[in-house]
TrEMBL record:
This is Glycogen operon protein. Keywords: Glycosidase, Hydrolase. SUPFAM superfamilies: (Trans)glycosidases, E set domains, Glycosyl hydrolase domain. Residues 182-563 form the Glycosyl hydrolase family 13 catalytic domain. It holds the Pfam family Alpha-amylase. InterPro entries: GH, GH13_cat_dom, GlgX_Isoamylase_N_E_set, Glyco_hydro_13_N, Glyco_hydro_b, Glycogen_debranch_GlgX, Ig-like_fold, Ig_E-set. Belongs to the glycosyl hydrolase 13 family. The keyword Signal does not apply. The keyword Hydrolase applies.
Amino acid sequence: MLNSCRGNCVRFGSVVKESGVNFAVFAPYATQVYLCLFDTSGHSQIAMIEMYLHEGGGWSVFVEPLRENTLYGYRVDGDYDPNTGRLFNVHKLLMDPYSKDFFGEFMWSERHFCHMPVGTLSTLDNAIDMPKSKVSNISKYVEERPNHAWSKTVIYECHVKGATFKHPEVNPAFRGKFLGLSDPAFIRHIKRLGITTLELLPVHAFVSEQFLITKGLRNYWGYNTLSYFTPHKSYLVDNDITEFQRMMATLHEVGIEVILDVVFNHTAEAGIDGPTLSLKGLNNLGYYRHVLGEPSVYINDTGCGNTLNIDDPQTLRLVLDSLRYWVEVMGVDGFRFDLATILARTEHGFNARHAFMHAVLQDPVLSSAKLIAEPWDIGPGGYQLGAFLPPWREWNDKYRDTVRRFWRQDEGVLPELAKRVHGSNDIFEHNRRGPLNSINFVTSHDGYTLADWVSYENKHNLANGEVNRDGHSENYSFNCGAEGFSTDMKISSLRIKMQKNALATLLLSKGVPMLAAGTEFSHSQGGNNNAYCQDNRTNWLAWKSSQLDHELTFFIQDLLAIRKQFSVFQHPFYVHSDDSRFSVSWLDENGEQMKESDWHSEGRKWLLYSIQDRQLEEALFIVFNAHDACLDARLPSAPFSKHWQLALSSCDSAKYDNAQSMCTISAQSSWVFTSLKEGNIHG
C-alpha cells in the first residue's frame, strides 16, 4: 500500500530516502500536477497521486515505500491556450526533466501532440508511446582524474557508436557502446596516436526527428535532446547507466579525459507544432524563448524549432544541475557547448557576462572543468568567435578556413595563415587570453572529412533526402584532379600528401589541436558534408587491417612527438618582439626577414618561419609550400647546433644535406627542421 505526503523541492527530480522517494518538479502556472506510477512493464499506470504546490511554483510529493527503479511520469493540468503560451494538457504523460534514467523507447505518434490541429486540445493519451522516468540512486564518481593541462591536451572528436562499431578487435558485445571506448583495443589506438582527450558527440538521451523517421533515416549525431541527465540508452550494453561510469574509470586509469558535446540550446520538442514531451508541458513560457508579445511563436536561433531560455532562473538551474551531475556523478572532465552563443544571449543579444557565465565561473565543480564554446548560432549577432571570457576555450573556424584556403592555393592568405599558426592573437588577445584558448581544427564531425576535403569540390548529400540542399556549399576543398574515389596513383598520392600538409599545419600551430575521428586513416564519407542522419558505413569507421597501420597514423604520431618535445607549444602566452625567451621569425626563401610587400605578393604561396626558445636552446624551422612548383629555399643559420636536422616532411622522398644551406622544397609539401643543443631532449 502506498502512502503519500507533502515532500520538498530542495532537489528537483526523484530522490531516494530511507523510507521512500521524494518527487519534485517545477510547473509554476499549473493548477495541478500528478505523479503517475507504472508497473515494471511500463505499460500500466498503477497510481495517479496529487502533488503539493510550494512557494515559487515547485510541486512535490513523498511516497513510501517506493524504492530505486520505480517507473513514473508527470501529468499536468491547467490552461491550454497557445495564444498565451500555456500548453498544459493532463492527457499527456511527461518525462521528468531531472530523470537520471528511464525505461522503454520513445515512439512517434499523433498522441504526443497536445494540439491536433494547433489550437485544438488533444485528448489522446500518449503514455503508451513515452519512455517512463526511472528512479535512480547511483553513487558519485570517486576515481582519480588525469587533469591534463590545456598545454598538453590533444583532442580526438568521435562518435560513441561510429568509433568502435566496426572495430574487429573490440569485444563484440561492446562495439558501438560506451564500453567500446574503454576496450583495450580502442585505448591502444588512441594512446598510440598521442591523444589525451576524447570529445564525444552528444551522449544525452536523444530521439530522431519525425521527418527523418518517415524517410527511413535517423538522427545519428544526437543533437536532438530528450533528457539532459540520462545517457543515451542505445550506447549501453545491459541498459545499465553505471556503464558510463565504468567507461570513465577505465579511460581515466590510462590517462584519457572525456569531454561531452552538450546541446543546451534546444530540445526535441521543436516549435508550437512539435510534440509535448517534458519542458513544454511543464513551463513552456519559462523554458523556451518566444517572440515578444507572441507567446505562440518560438524564437528559432537554433534552426531546430525552439531555443532554450537560459535567462529564466529555473532553466539556468536545470542546465547547471545537469552539468554538475555529469561531472560529479558520471565522472566527465568537461564540455563542448553546441551553439554556445545561445547560452549567453538575452533579449538584447549576446552578453559575455551573462548570468550563466558568472554561475559557471563561481561554481566550485564547473569552474575546474574544461569548457569549450562553439561560438556561433544563426540568431542575430550570433557569430561571437573571440568574445568569450576566461576560462572558456573556443572552436576556431577561422583557423579551419584559413588552413584550407592556403593549401587550396587561394590568393592573399599568407598574413592570416601566420596569425592562425601563431595562435590567433588577433582574435583572443584583446581580452587577455592566450593561444591555448583557440581550439584549432581543420575538420570536425560537421563538414567534410580530411580525406573528402582533398577528394571533392562539391558536396554529395543526396542520401540525406534534402535534394542536396543541406550542408555548407563553400568548403574550401579541392579534388586533386578527379571528383571522388580514384584509382589513379598520382591522384591518390597527392591526396595523402595534402592531408599530411594539413596535419602538419594543425599539429605544429599554437593552440589546442583537435582531430576528427578517422582522420588518422583517411576516413571518407563519400563527399557527404552533413552526414548527421547517416547511421551506416558513411559514418562508421572502417577498421581494416590496412588502416590500423596507416601512414597518416604514423605521421600524426611523429608530429605529436615534435609538439610534445618543443616548449613553445606549451607556452600559454603569445610571442611578441619583446619576449625575453621566445622569438618567431617570418622568413623569405632567401632566409631573410619578410618585407611588408612579401606578405601581399601575388603568387606567393609558401610560408617559412623559425621559432626559438633561448632558455632551452631549441629551435624549429618550418616550411609550408602550397605552390604546385618546387621552392629553392635558403635555411637560416641554425641556432644552438651546427646544422638543421630534417625532422619530418610530407614528402616520402624528402632529403636534406645538412652540410648545405639550400634545400629544394617539393611542390605542395611541408618540411620541419629542428636545431637543439646537443643532448637537449625532453618531453
